[in-house]
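Work Package 3 (structural annotation) set out to generate three-dimensional models for the target panel prioritized at the project kickoff. During this period the team completed the workflow that converts sequence records into discrete structure tokens, so that structures can be stored uniformly alongside our sequence database. As a representative example, we reproduce one entry of 209 residues exactly as it appears in the project archive.
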Amino acid sequence: MKKLLDLDNWNRKEHFHFFKQMDEPFFGVTVTIECTKAYENSKELGTSFFVYYLHKTLVAVNAIESFRYRISENQIFVYDQIDGSATIGRADGTFGFSLIEYHPDFKIFEAGALTEIQRIQNTSGLFTRTFETDDLIHFSAIPWLNFTSLSHARSNTFPDSCPKISFGKMTVSEDGKKSMPMSVHVHHGLMDGFHLGQFVDYFQDLMNR
């Protein structure tokens, strides 16, 4: 479900009109996420660390309202729920786009995620399903690289306002602390650095629990 945002009474109306006209309206940051506790929790649960932090990402995305905004025909809609479209790798080195439905209960989410991952890994090609709506985030993991910045392939003529969140290689410090880079790219017409900071802080808090 989604509802129309009252743009005329929105305190960011001018910001929206200013940034949406730009050729590249997205901006992004790369931050370091401490993940020692989260990794331990995933192992205790006997689950994939990837699935674990994907779930935490979607918990944070759904908690921050601006991450649920999407642009359609110069209007802004607010979705009740955002799901994840993650790139899923295959044994042959290719990947496919998935659609993993969010659920606040991790066990329910995990079951759906593992089913979709298996489906992608047993198919071929980039698009193995249709994407009817934009109530999702674009999600990817690049576990081979401890990157400090990241860019995305984008078409400036294709309407897109979905956040893009990527994770890099997990590294371990001399004192045993685990961390990994996280890149977040968002549409500047929908949010600013303040909102991005809210997301990062809440996500880190979730990973520390």
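The chain has a mean pLDDT of 97.
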